[in-house]
């Protein structure tokens, strides 16, 4: 069985999502389907089709979470330290061409969120940064061509 690295917070969020899907979302969509069925002809019933689509999404997400959660390997980032980039690191990089500075936290694929500047350990950027340290210049594959970035800070928090 393949193990997925994850932080304790990320695992807790996945478990909460699974609990909500099972206890709240699933029963709600079942009620919506029953209500839509009561309206009669299902072939032209948009409410019924929308509810069935939602049910399909919910059941698929439940199945995914039921597979991922037992396969998760919790890594305690609080116990980590050092100056090399590893899982759980918060890394500040500077694009050598544009001088743009960005900070990312490298975490598991199932908890990554670009809105929160957290990237998956399996992303091209994270893979390029792994094992490197402050002052290292790294070539990162990008859609517009490879970019050079310099690591200016590595922290574990």
UniProtKB/TrEMBL annotation:
Is DNA-binding tagged as a keyword? yes
Does the record bear Metal-binding in its keywords? no
Instruction: Identify the PANTHER family for this entry.
Output: TRANSCRIPTION ELONGATION FACTOR GREA
Give the family per the record: Belongs to the GreA/GreB family.
Give the Pfam families listed for this entry.
GreA_GreB (PF01272), GreA_GreB_N (PF03449)
Q: Which GO terms describe its molecular function?
A: translation elongation factor activity
State what this protein does. Necessary for efficient RNA polymerase transcription elongation past template-encoded arresting sites. The arresting sites in DNA have the property of trapping a certain fraction of elongating RNA polymerases that pass through, resulting in locked ternary complexes. Cleavage of the nascent transcript by cleavage factors such as GreA or GreB allows the resumption of elongation from the new 3'terminus. GreA releases sequences of 2 to 3 nucleotides.
Q: Which gene encodes it?
A: greA
Alphabetized UniProt keyword annotations: DNA-binding, Elongation factor, Protein biosynthesis, Transcription, Transcription regulation
Q: What is this protein called?
A: Transcription elongation factor GreA
In this protein, which residues make up the domain named Transcription elongation factor GreA/GreB N-terminal? 5-74
Q: Supply the PROSITE patterns for this chain.
A: GREAB_1, GREAB_2
Domain Transcription elongation factor GreA/GreB C-terminal intervals: 82-156
């Amino acid at each position: 069985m393949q193990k997925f690295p994850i932080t304790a917070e990320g695992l807790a969020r996945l478990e909460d999502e699974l609990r909500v899907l099972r206890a709240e979302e699933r029963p709600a969509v079942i009620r919506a389907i029953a209500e839509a069925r009561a309206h009669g002809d299902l072939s032209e019933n948009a409410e019924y089709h929308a509810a069935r689509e939602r049910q399909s999404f919910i059941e698929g997400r439940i199945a995914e979470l039921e597979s991922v959660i037992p396969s998760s390997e919790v890594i305690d980032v609080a116990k980590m330290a050092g100056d090399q980039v590893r899982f759980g690191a918060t890394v500040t990089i500077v694009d050598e061409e544009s001088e743009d500075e960005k900070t990312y936290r490298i975490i598991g694929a199932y908890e990554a969120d670009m809105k929160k500047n957290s990237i998956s350990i399996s992303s091209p950027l994270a893979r390029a940064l792994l094992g490197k340290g402050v002052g290292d210049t790294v070539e990162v594959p990008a859609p517009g061509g490879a970019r050079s970035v310099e690591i200016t800070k590595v922290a574990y928090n």
